[in-house]
What we know:
Blueprint: H1 6-13, E1 35-41, H2 48-64, E2 68-74, H3 79-91, E3 96-99, H4 104-116, E4 121-124, E5 134-138, H5 140-155, E6 163-168, H6 174-187, E7 192-198, H7 204-218, E8 225-228, H8 231-243, H9 259-267, E9 272-275, H10 278-293, E10 304-306, E11 314-319, E12 322-325, H11 329-334, H12 341-344, H13 350-355
Parallel strand pairs: 1-2, 1-3, 3-4, 4-5, 5-11, 6-7, 6-8
Antiparallel strand pairs: 9-12, 10-11
Helix pairs in contact: 1-10, 2-10, 3-4, 5-6, 7-8
Amino acid sequence: MRGLGLRGVAGLLAVLLAVSLAGCSEGGGEGEGELTIGLLLPSRAVPRWEKWDRPQIEKRVKELCSECRVVYANAENDAASQRQQMTSMITRGVSALLLDVVDPKALRSSVHAAQREGIPVVAYDRLAEGPVSGFVSFDGAQVGRLQGQELLKGMGARADGGGVVMVNGDPSSPNAAWYEDGARTVLQDEVRILKSYSTLGWRTENAHDHMSAAISALGPGAIDGVLAANDSIAAGVVSALKSARVTPLPPVTGQDADLDAVQRIVEGEQYMTVYKPFRQEAEAAAAMAVALARGNDIDSLVTTTVDSPTTEDVPAILLTPTAVTRETIGRTLVRTGVYTVGQICTPKLRPACARAGLAR
Length: 360
């Protein structure tokens, strides 16, 4: 570990001024003396990208850099589209790139192209391959461990040798394997992994199909718990279990603290999720991108290094995730301002919210 903590980084940079930002569609050439940061996000299938990450990054860049603007593109989970978007940003001469990569192998040549043009690339949330200048994410192994630990708690006595189905993330995402490996370190000596699936695009409908297949193959009585990699996948899992009239529902994990997942947790349909304070991640990435765009080093920002399949010792900031269950929603999500009780507790959920200690 080295350098300042995030709190120190925020204090150091808070005095910097702001400038208006623009989306990629707003186009236009870069003005004299203006720095441009390209932001490439992977999809809209996972709600967090548009709801949390993009606005937080744009806001923080605005606060940090009076001469910076942001241009934005979303790949809609298509690697070819993301390559084209990245090529366009390289051609227009952006000062730095924040890349949340759809497929690291498919975008490797684009990262090399950026390097040849002297454009630093910060890998955001997922570690891109090639000569990236920095990486900002959450500790993915810890995400998986939290999911595994809470799943065992939710399974109770059945955690001793019970049967678990794993519905993992998209195999093209390096984070999917990171999460799965972390979860398996907790589960492997405690339960039986009956089925394990990879979910293309992290899509709810694909997760529904996987869970339906598992129920058909195993029978509902054999499934004591489900390790779902994120909340979009958990939604498909829960839907399939309900469609098959599985009662009671086995504990189901998740990740991202999506509002509908929090509501499922209150209602007892999903056991837990993993909250990753996206504001911290966005602010750290914005600080790194602004520093690199200005030609400054990032030694004072990073806290560790990581290795990708192509590059060793990538300067990195890895943040700490938090498990959320029904008992902890109040202190992890409400008190921190992620959601209000009113947002979570619809009229239908008010009795369940009262039982969970979530009162207006």
